[in-house]
Amino acid sequence: MNLTLRVWRQAGPTAPGRFETYEANGVSEDSSFLEMLDGVNEELVAAGEEPIEFMHDCREGICGTCGMMINGQAHGPQALTTACQLHMRTFSDGDEIVVEPWRAAGFPIVKDLVVDRAAFDRIIEAGGYVSVETGSAQDANLIPVPKESADLAMDAAACIGCGACVAACPNGAAQLFTSAKLMHLNSLPQGQPERSERTVAMVEVMEEHFGSCTNYGECEAACPKGISIDFIAAMNRDHRRALVRNRRSA
Amino acid sequence: MTVLDAKIPDGPIESKWDDHRFAMRLVSPANKRKFSVIVVGTGLAGASAAATMGELGYQVKAFTFHDSARRAHSIAAQGGINAAKNYHGDGDSIYRLFYDTVKGGDFRSREANVYRLAQVSNNIIDQCVAQGVPFAREYGGLLDNRSFGGAQVSRTFYARGQTGQQLLLGAYQALAAQVKKRTVELHTKTELLDIVVVDGRAVGIVTRNLHTGEIRSHAADAVVLATGGYSNVYFLSTNAMACNTSAIWRAHRKGAMFANPSFTQIHPTAIPTSDEFQSKLTLMSESLRNDGRIWVPKDLDEQRAVADIPEEDRDYFLERRYPAFGNLAPRDISSRAAKERVDAGYGVGPMKNGVYLDFSEAIGRLGRDVIAEKYGNLFEMYERITGENPYDVPMRIYPAPHYTMGGLWVDYELQTTIPGLFAIGEANFSDHGANRLGASALMQGLADGYFVLPATIGNYLAPMLGKPKVDTTAPEFAEAERAVQEQNDRFLRNNGTKSVDHYHRELGRIVWDHCGMERTREGLEKALSEIPTLRAEFEANVRVPGSADTLNSSLEKAGRVADFFELAELMCRDALVREESCGAHFRAEYQTEDGEALRNDADYAHVSAWEWSGDSANPTEHREQLEYESVQFATRSYK
Ligand SMILES: Cc1cc2nc3c(=O)[nH]c(=O)nc-3n(C[C@H](O)[C@H](O)[C@H](O)COP(=O)(O)OP(=O)(O)OC[C@H]3O[C@@H](n4cnc5c(N)ncnc54)[C@H](O)[C@@H]3O)c2cc1C
Ligand code: FES
Question: Which ipTM score applies to this complex?
Answer without folding.
Answer: 0.98
